[in-house]
Write a structure and sequence with these properties.
The complex is a heterodimer of chains A (431) and B (445).
Chain A: H1 2-5, H2 15-18, H3 25-41, E1 50-54, E2 67-70, H4 71-94, H5 101-120, E3 127-128, H6 129-155, H7 163-181, H8 184-208, H9 213-238, H10 240-243, E4 252-253, H11 263-267, E5 269-270, H12 272-290, H13 292-302, H14 304-309, H15 314-333, H16 335-339, H17 352-362, H18 367-390, H19 396-415
Parallel strand pairs in A: 1-3
Antiparallel strand pairs in A: 1-2, 4-5
Chain B: H1 5-22, H2 27-33, H3 41-44, H4 47-53, H5 55-77, H6 79-85, H7 92-114, H8 123-152, H9 160-177, H10 182-211, H11 215-233, H12 275-292, H13 294-304, H14 306-311, H15 316-343, H16 354-364, H17 369-393, H18 398-412, H19 414-421
Helix pairs in contact in B: 5-7, 5-18, 5-19, 6-7, 7-17, 8-12, 8-15, 8-16, 8-17, 9-10, 9-11, 9-15, 9-16, 10-11, 10-15, 12-13, 12-15, 12-17, 13-15, 16-17, 17-18
The chains are: A mainly alpha (431), B mainly alpha (445).
Pfam family, one (chain A): BPD_transp_2
Protein name (chain A): ABC transporter permease
GO cellular component, one term (chain A): plasma membrane
């Protein structure tokens, strides 16, 4: 500790040099959002047009009435909000201070609202807020599980590219088991086992044989894709009734919480899988940063030699974490089949695992960050879906590109250089 | 990668005790300070040992093992086998015979579809499967080379799929919308594809170099964007004048790759085109680039140790961008082969899954140009044969994915193959003093 403070001692004399330079990225992005609203969205709205937002799903204690706002006025207000945020952020940058995190949220919300107002202006169809959010959550669920799986593995130093395969195998196992045993809940037991199996394979090759972890991950994805596709086309198709009947999990309505307007039906009228997800997110965050397991996991991922020196069994920790991570991703895979009440289909994970990987990196290897990134992705994806069904004048393909574009901007703009766990991808051998 | 804790742990104790007996004088140190070199001189130098532990044999055995495991899966899914297995304990031979039959038929069809169809009624017909394998291998080799170049620079470029798509859009448009004289038109269209792929791959390169954006994320996202882009393009009047289906106008004949085996030589219906020669030339180019050029040296240096490369005065950002552009250009060549040779127009599925398969190809080729070339040929053959296998024996083509991935997995883990076939380990253990206490292996495998 004392050694670390010595080089910084002179900073006490010159406190002004201690402040690192703050990037102007944030105000520029804010200003860009304001500019896009001003230049592209405002001209597209007529003076007397209005937009209607729908807030109720019809089952709450009291339902909020539909809100109709004058489109032009709303857009002007939102532009002013964004411009003000940009100006304030710029002032903060000049003072070498960071913009507070909630400002990102405000600007993001303002921009989304502006877009929705623009899309719904002058149309008879309403903007369905509840289904917008519910769809966003549904699209986020496998991403959240996948991203958490990535966090568990990578914090211990194993790169888990096989999230995709774990999700797919989890979906497969859940569908087959639930169908054969006649209840969706069996799927919730089979899915993590299947995911853990893929995780165990990854750990076996990565730790015992020290094969490059990215290679193993990519190859396991292909293996699972081929395996499930093969079994789907043979065994599952031969006897669909036995092996691949849809077995949806029942929705469990949480009595009081589900009555909250807008958010209640979105968050608390879900299957047990979603409630499990809430629990896992919170527990993982606590465990990772507040428990012995978490400390050891992070130590093994950052500096395995030091961890080994103090008696932590590096490779054992890594193997178990990879298996655990696989189980979490496998459970997430169950959402594709029993969680959404669908039968298994070929390649039904459709690249979700890779986006989960992106969400994990975007969330800087933190559980909450990963969840936020997954939700952002799910929301923007569903926003694209909803807008392309409402019809907004923008080609639907461009709207469907939205989440991917946003992710690129987020990676290049907000996150930039991120630091993965230091020992990630490097096999550990005692020397 | 040649040193495996697994093998060393099983050898460690007995080899070490031999050592202690043989090297008697420093016994006190030997037991305390480490085992020293544990080379086993009795078989270490023999020719047989070298053959048995060689990497060529390892690869061959890995392929055999992968085919066997795939065969088990085929047998498992076979209805006759499953029917026979219901009375397995009464008459096990029935099950085994049915399993063998299912596996044998599938693999015979695979061979007939990919190398030589001896049941065809003409020589041309017999050789056709081989040419089909080569046709499929063109995009795999070219895109695989692009990914391999990225790997050598330490970049994980998952975006070959998107780069192929964008290259294909440009190449196809130049192919059908522009009028140019014969040879020039082909060159322009091919170059257009190359530029399209290179620009699209340049995006993650620049974002990584300038903003440190992780190239894995950006290339994945660009793949999706490319998919929506091509579906958008195919709805535009210029790409879809008749508004009929998801197919662009046919590429003009001047812009097509000529057939590699001209009809003047022998009457044939091969799809094989000059794109295959382009793939060979590209392999030579990449070999030259990586092994003989300054840029290639810098690419490898950045891949091996970016910090050291920066210290040595190389611009890591510039090399990152250059590497991605080269990778995209190669993917663009792959797109040219598809649009101007095989498909002859632009469809939404023009890239099939070549961009993703190419990753496996590059991995199997260990990021070496010629390794990638032969891996591409192998995977092209598996792909071509898979179609005949599917139509003849109703074995889903997915089995090819299983076999491919098993091959790569097994080749990447030679000790596993060695332990399956009970072969000796190849090289002496590295001379690294091992701790005296025999630590319990920390591998819960």
């Amino acid at each position: 500790m004392s050694a670390a403070t010595v080089p910084h001692a002179r900073d006490v004399d010159a406190p002004t040099t201690a402040r690192p330079k703050v990037s102007v990225k944030t105000p520029v992005v804010y200003a860009l959002a304001a500019l896009v609203t001003l230049a592209l969205l405002l001209p597209g709205v007529g003076a007397d047009e209005s937009t209607t937002f729908q807030f109720s799903a019809g089952a709450e204690w009291f339902s909020l009435p539909n809100l109709t706002v004058p489109a032009l006025m709303t857009l002007v207000v939102l532009t002013v909000v964004m411009a003000a945020a940009a100006a304030w952020a710029f002032v903060l940058v000049r003072q070498r201070r960071h913009a507070p995190p909630w400002l990102h949220v405000v600007v993001g919300l303002a921009f989304v609202l502006a877009f929705l107002t623009y899309a719904g202006a002058g149309k008879t169809s309403v903007i369905p807020m509840v289904s917008l959010l519910a769809g966003a959550l549904a699209l986020s669920v496998p991403l959240v599980f996948g991203a958490l799986s990535g966090v568990i593995c990578e914090r211990s130093g194993i790169i888990n590219i096989a999230i995709e395969g774990q999700l797919l195998f989890g979906a497969f196992a859940a569908a087959v088991t639930a169908s054969a045993l006649g209840s969706g809940y069996w799927g919730l037991i089979a899915a993590p086992v299947a995911g853990a199996l893929v995780g165990a394979l990854l750990a076996w090759f990565a730790v015992s044989y020290q094969v490059n972890q990215i290679i193993v991950g990519v190859v396991l994805n292909t293996l699972i894709l081929g395996l499930t596709g093969f079994l789907f086309a043979t065994v599952l198709s031969d006897n669909k009734a036995l092996w691949n009947t849809r077995m949806p999990l029942p929705r469990l309505r949480i009595p009081v919480l589900a009555e909250i307007p807008v958010l209640g039906p979105v968050l608390f009228n879900q299957t047990v899988l979603i409630y499990l997800m809430y629990v896992i997110v919170v527990v993982l965050n606590v465990m990772l940063f507040r428990s012995r397991w978490g400390l050891r996991t992070r130590a093994v991922g950052e500096h395995p030699k030091a961890a080994d020196t103090v008696g932590i069994k590096v490779n054992v920790r890594r193997v178990w974490n990879t298996i655990l991570g696989g189980a979490v991703a496998g459970l997430g895979g169950a959402f594709f089949t029993v969680g959404s009440g669908l039968a298994f289909g070929r390649e039904m994970s459709a690249g979700t695992g890779f986006i989960a990987l992106a969400a994990m990196i975007l969330g800087k290897w933190n559980p909450y960050g990963a969840v936020a990134a997954a939700l952002l992705f799910g929301f923007s994806k569903n926003l694209g879906n909803v807008l392309s069904t409402i019809g907004s004048g923008v080609p639907s393909e461009l709207l469907l590109m939205l989440p991917y574009l946003i992710t690129i901007f987020a990676v290049a703009g907000f996150v930039g250089r991120v630091r993965p766990p230091a020992a990630e991808g490097i096999p550990y051998t005692k020397s | 990668m040649s040193d495996q804790p697994h093998a060393s742990s099983s050898h460690g104790s007995d080899a070490g005790s031999e050592q202690a007996v043989a090297a008697a004088p420093p016994a006190a140190v030997g037991t305390e300070g480490g085992h020293g070199p544990t080379r086993r001189d009795d078989d270490g130098g023999s020719v047989l040992h070298q053959i048995l532990s060689g990497s060529a044999l390892m690869s061959a055995l890995a392929i055999v093992l992968a085919l066997l495991l795939g065969g088990l899966l085929i047998a498992f899914a076979d209805e006759d086998t499953r029917a026979a297995s219901s009375y397995f304990f009464a008459r096990p031979t029935d099950t085994l015979a049915a399993a063998w039959d299912a596996m044998w038929q599938a693999y015979v069809a695979l061979f007939r579809g990919s190398v030589l169809d001896w049941q065809a009624d003409s020589v041309v017909g017999m050789v056709k499967p081989l040419t089909e394998s080569m046709v499929f291998s063109v995009p795999l080799i070219l895109a695989g080379l692009g990914i391999a170049v990225g790997f050598r620079a330490g970049l994980f470029n998952i975006g070959a799929q998107g780069q192929i798509i964008v290259g294909a859009i440009v190449a196809a448009w130049l192919g059908f919308a522009v009028d140019l004289p014969p040879v020039v038109h082909l060159l322009v269209a091919v170059l257009g594809g190359v530029v399209g792929g290179a620009v699209y791959a340049g995006i993650p390169g620049v974002l990584k170099a300038r903003f440190g954006a992780n190239e894995v994320i950006v290339t994945i996202m660009l793949n999706y964007i490319a998919v929506y882009l091509i579906s958008y393009m195919l709805k535009q009047p210029s790409f879809n004048p008749g508004r009929t289906g998801q197919r662009s106008p046919a590429v003009q004949p001047e812009a097509l790759y000529p057939a590699l085996v001209p009809d003047a030589l022998v009457e044939n219906d091969f799809r094989l085109h000059w794109g295959f020669v382009v793939a060979i030339l590209a392999t030579v180019f990449v070999w030259w680039l990586l092994e003989r050029s300054t840029t290639g040296f810098q690419i490898r240096a950045v891949g091996a140790n970016p910090a050291a490369a920066r210290t040595a005065g190389m611009s890591v950002g510039r090399i990152t961008i250059i590497t991605m552009v080269i990778a995209g250009a190669l993917a663009g060549l792959a797109a040219g082969g598809q649009v101007l040779g095989t498909e002859r127009s632009l469809t939404a599925g023009v890239a099939a899954s070549f961009g993703f398969d190419a990753i496996t190809v590059a991995l199997l080729g260990r990021s070496r140009p010629w390794g990638t070339f032969f891996a591409g040929l192998l995977f092209g053959a598996l792909k071509a044969g898979g179609f005949l296998m599917q139509s003849l024996t109703q074995t889903p083509i997915d089995i090819i994915l299983v076999v491919q991935s098993l091959i790569v997995l097994l080749i990447a883990a030679p000790p596993l193959v060695r332990s399956v076939f009970r072969l000796p380990a190849p090289t002496p253990r590295p001379r690294r003093p091992r701790p005296a206490r025999t630590t319990p292996k920390e591998v819960a495998a």
